[in-house]
Amino acid sequence: MRSVRDDQLVRPTVEDEVAAAGSELFGGPVGRRALLGVSWWTPVRVIALVAIGMFALGMVQKLPCYDHGWFLGATTQYTHACYSDIPHLYNGRGFDQGLIPYLDRIPQTLSGGMEYLEYPVLTGLFMEVAALLTPGGGTLQHREQAYWFINAGMLMACAAVIAVCVARTHRRRPWDALLVALAPAFALTATINWDLFAVALTAAAMLMWSRSRAVAAGVLIGLAAAAKLYPALLLGPLLVLCLRAGRLRAFLGTAAAAAGAWLVVNLPLMFTHDAGGFHIRPGWAKFYTFSQERPVDFGSVWLVVSQRTGDPLDDANTYATLLMLLGALGIGALALSAPRRPRFAQLAFLVVALFILVNKVYSPQYVLWLVPLAALARPKWRDFLVWQACEVLYFLGIWFYLAYTGSGDKHQGLPAEGYQLAIVVHLLGTLYLCALVVRDILLPERDVVRRDGSDDPSGGVLDGAPDIFVLGADREERTAPEDGTRVQWGTGSRRP
Fold first, then answer.
1. What is the rounded distance in angstroms from the CA atom of residue 338 to the CA atom of residue 346?
2. What is the DSSP annotation of 163-194?
3. Is the separation of the CB atoms in 224 and 264 below 8 Å?
4. What mean pLDDT comes out for the span 113-142?
5. Alpha helices in 195-315 (DSSP H)
6. I need a labelling partner for 57 at 20 to 30 A (CA). Which of 148, 246, 268, 378 fits?
7. Structure pTM?
8. Rounded Cα distance, 416 and 397, in Å
């Protein structure tokens, strides 16, 4: 396995003015002599500890709810911006009563009409493991607190895995993972739901792909898709990139491994048998039917349109699907016609961002899906922090809006107009980062990752591969060198 010496690592404090300015709080940029010294404080270890520290701060931010806010009233958890699904679903989905997800029907007195757990199978397993670890004694409130705390500990491990995987995906740029570790929206939303589990599996899949381990990457993508649907979208970018590079065999291996892993996890719960034969188990299908049937919801552009026009937008599924297909075709055309083959992380970020932007719901924790991809796609501190500021604004906006709607005549919080503005700001923040990634694809010399002559550090078998299929140009104009040298993008020079 190739190794990279400390003095070969790309340092953000040298190439990024914002990172350099921020480092003055800790004594300024690290010098070359310090880098050459032997130290336990390797970049990966530092980043993992920072990620754990920020996660712990996010847990502290939930302290008002942990003490009383989840239990004393609907608005307290909103006015303190410390809401979490985790304690509410411990009782609301029957975990406190020992109900088995997907098999046991949830009493209506607990679920508010949700007959079965509305999460994919691996997330349900994650929730069930935490429930088994939760002590059975004491009041329901004490058990809900313990359940949240146990989940938080498991999700903290996921956060550390994400930080380490991102740090190791780009061998020469481990410090880019500090964007993940220090992301404020990451810390604030980490324990709202169970998304970090799927994000950790996705980050591990991208690490495996960067190491040219296509089958392992596929297995992890399949497992991640069994925890949350969005990781399956990564197969789209891999398809067009492998098509352009003539490496379809690698893609087919990854796709087959992903499908196999997903089936292994889902098949045991997918079917039930009775006198009429085999049927899809309704408990297993609940996640998919719920996603299809739910109305437009918080954070989405569709909610703004619905609230402004009074139209419930019953056809939002159709609109979102059409926009997703059109956007995916656009991303595919961009990937096949760009001056240089885009990096995997760039296309992965664009396709997941597209899915979130056109979706019927854009929950605050969905930012967790994008943070690791953004750090790999465009590791520029100024742009990343602009986007994070928009997400933090929305994080506060949604809770204050729910406080306003739940406080009766007091109207304590943010009215609908203010919430709609917060939605628009956080959508524009995501679009801003998407626009910069697209610009980097169209102008490869602007891509900070490629300044050192790299092709695609997260590309695995695609890194340095010549282009075979390119739209709109002769092959000779777009192919990478066949002699194993690398192009210093933007200068035309080569280096061995």
1. 12
2. HHHHHHHSTT-GGGGHHHHT-HHHHHHTTTSS
3. no
4. 94
5. 195-210, 214-225, 235-245, 248-270, 282-293, 301-309
6. 378
7. 0.90
8. 10
